[in-house]
Amino acid sequence: MPEHVLRVGALYPELMNIYADRGNLLLLQKRCQWRGIGFELASVTLTEDLDPDAHDLLYLGGGQDRDQKLCAQDLATAKRASVQAAVERGVVMFGVCGGLQLLGEFYELDGEKLPGLGLVDLRTTRERGPRLIGNVAIDVDLDGQSRVLAGFENHGGRTVLGAGAQPLGRVLRGHGNNGRDGSEGVIGGPRENIVGTYLHGPLLPKNAWFADWLIARALGVSETELAPLDDTFERAAHASARRAAGV
Ligand code: GLN
User: What pLDDT does 1 receive?
Assistant: First the structure.
């Protein structure tokens, strides 16, 4: 597919990059390059304008609470309208952990409510109790196929989905959004193009199928149009992450 170019906008990559979340971008880049699909990566950080037409996929990784605080205000004010316009155009918005939390209404911690983008109906609260940490596997049903995502979670925030939101998957092992209701992540938007998950690791090298799903969605093609790759190592990484989670 040489005529295609995947244009990725990484939001606050120097602040929202915990547990090597940047590795997700590397995998997207490699899987495009290996197929002859063009790949462009731009970072958009604090105080920089976000052009809603400049990207096919926007990526927001995870971050420590203090880094998240720096980004939340900027995201929910200066960049909010641009992200909303992009998402309405069908741009994929992919958030991991802290990124997932900021897709929703707010992240409340230490008596303070960090504003979110309000793209999906979810709320996150830093409750008393231990952080939710460990290997995790979830069952994901996308495009009529049931598949597994495996990774690692470490979050203090508990996320609860509102009635208008769908989880990305159901917890097989681990805590998920809040350790109580079996939901993990979120998927929504006009074309199921808003996706969030607590899974780090980084997530995509352990779940190459999901990288391809994101690439296809962002390019507006079907997954079957993407040329197959030799995924020997990727399958081994996936199997190892599943084993770690006990699935
Ligand atoms: N700071 C957030 C929390 O602890 C997100 C953490 C993360 O991105 N790993 O809930």
Answer: 52
CATH architecture group of domain 5-245: 3-Layer(aba) Sandwich (3.40)
State whether the beta carbon of 155 lies less than 6 angstroms from ligand 1. Answer: yes
pLDDT of residue 204: 97
Q: Which of 12, 15, 16, 18 to mutate to test the pocket of ligand 1 (most atoms within 8 A of CB)?
A: 18
- Whether residue 70 has its Cβ less than 6 Å from ligand 1: no
Give me the residues of the chain with pLDDT under 70, please.
1-2
In the chain, domain spans: 5-245
pLDDT at 238: 98
Which of 97, 155, 175, 238 is catalytic? The answer is 97
**pTM for this entry:** 0.96
Alpha-carbon distances, residue 102 vs 153, 198, 231, 237 (angstroms): 16, 12, 32, 28
DSSP tag of 211: H
Instruction: Give the residue ranges of DSSP H helices in the chain.
Output: 22-34, 65-76, 80-88, 98-101, 203-206, 208-219, 232-245
* Cβ-based burial of 166 (10 A; exposed 0-12, middle 13-18, buried ≥19): middle
Is 200 tagged catalytic?
Answer: yes
The pLDDT value given to residue 2: 52
Q: Strand ranges (DSSP E) for the chain?
A: 5-11, 38-44, 57-60, 92-96, 106-109, 112-115, 122-126, 132-142, 145-155, 157-161, 169-173, 183-184, 186-188, 194-197
Q: Is 32 considered catalytic here? A: no
- Side-chain half-sphere CA neighbours of 121 within 13 A: 8
